[in-house]
């Protein structure tokens, strides 16, 4: 199975929905680099996120071989959902107005997700599932939608940030106690900013 070559950033968003928006690199650039290049990579990412089981993944890949057009369609839907979520959470992170058209796209997927919801017995209690749709090729979209809904309705929404390294475009939920996280990672954009500051300081000293 082809792998997404961004393993290091896979979990950087701290929330499933934000990890999903980070499946395009340099997302804030005019032409980002797509990581979800085919349905296989969507399955691979979903396995990494543990939103589908290994058995489910195998079944979905078999399905994709039988119905490649359906697989393509699912990927297109996934990307449509991701892009709407990216614009929406980016707007929130940068105190911009969320576009009604982006909310409408999300709501369309929310409607589909909630038509599949079932409450099932689990351990000594109950669990919220999308069990009805779990054999379908787009089954990985519903937990992502659920994660976006949860985040939008939670107090953590004020912790959603866009990496300050432009045009990195990585979104994350800042879980640090004093809300001080600024970068996707210190090794990446954090370091670049540090190098830039150092360079600017030297330039000032020279002039
Ligand atoms: Zn970054």
UniProtKB/TrEMBL annotation:
Pfam families assigned: ABATE (PF07336), zf-CGNR (PF11706)
Domain Zinc finger CGNR: 159-201
Annotated protein name in UniProt: CGNR zinc finger domain-containing protein
């Amino acid at each position: 199975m082809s792998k997404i070559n961004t393993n290091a950033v896979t979990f950087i968003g701290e929330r499933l929905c934000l990890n999903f928006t980070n499946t395009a690199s340099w997302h804030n650039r005019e032409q980002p680099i797509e990581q979800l290049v085919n349905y296989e990579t969507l399955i691979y990412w979903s396995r990494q996120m543990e939103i589908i089981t290994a058995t489910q993944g195998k079944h979905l890949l078999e399905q994709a071989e039988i119905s490649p057009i359906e697989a393509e369609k699912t990927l297109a839907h996934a990307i449509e959902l991701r892009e709407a979520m990216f614009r929406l959470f980016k707007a929130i992170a940068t105190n911009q107005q969320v576009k009604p058209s982006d909310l409408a796209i999300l709501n369309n997927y929310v409607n589909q997700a909630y038509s599949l919801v079932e409450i099932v017995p689990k351990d000594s209690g109950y669990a919220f599932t999308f069990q009805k749709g779990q054999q379908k090729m787009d089954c990985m979209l519903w937990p992502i939608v659920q994660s976006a809904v949860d985040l939008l309705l939670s107090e953590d929404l004020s912790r959603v940030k866009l990496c300050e390294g432009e045009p990195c475009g990585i979104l994350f939920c800042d879980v640090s106690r004093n809300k001080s996280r600024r970068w996707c990672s210190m090794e990446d954009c954090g370091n670049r900013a540090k190098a830039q500051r150092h360079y600017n300081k030297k330039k000032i000293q020279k002039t």
